[in-house]
Amino acid sequence: MVKIAIVTGASRGLGKGCASVLANEEGFTVYATGRTTADLDKLAEECAKVGNGKIVPCTLDQKDDEAVKEFVAKVKAEAGKVDLLVNNAYQGLEAQKPFFGKRFYERPIAEFDGHMNVGVRSSYVMASLVAPMMVEAKQGLIVQMSSTGGAWYVFSTPYSVAHAAMDRLSADMAVELKGLGVRAVTLWPLSCVTEKAAFPDGESATFVGRCLAALVKAPADDLEKVNGKVVITTELAEKYGVVDTSGAIPVGMFTGPEFAKAVRGYSGAKPLAFYSVDADIATHAVGADWSATNSEGAAAWFPGHDGRE
Question: 135: domain CATH number?
Answer without folding.
Answer: 3.40.50.720
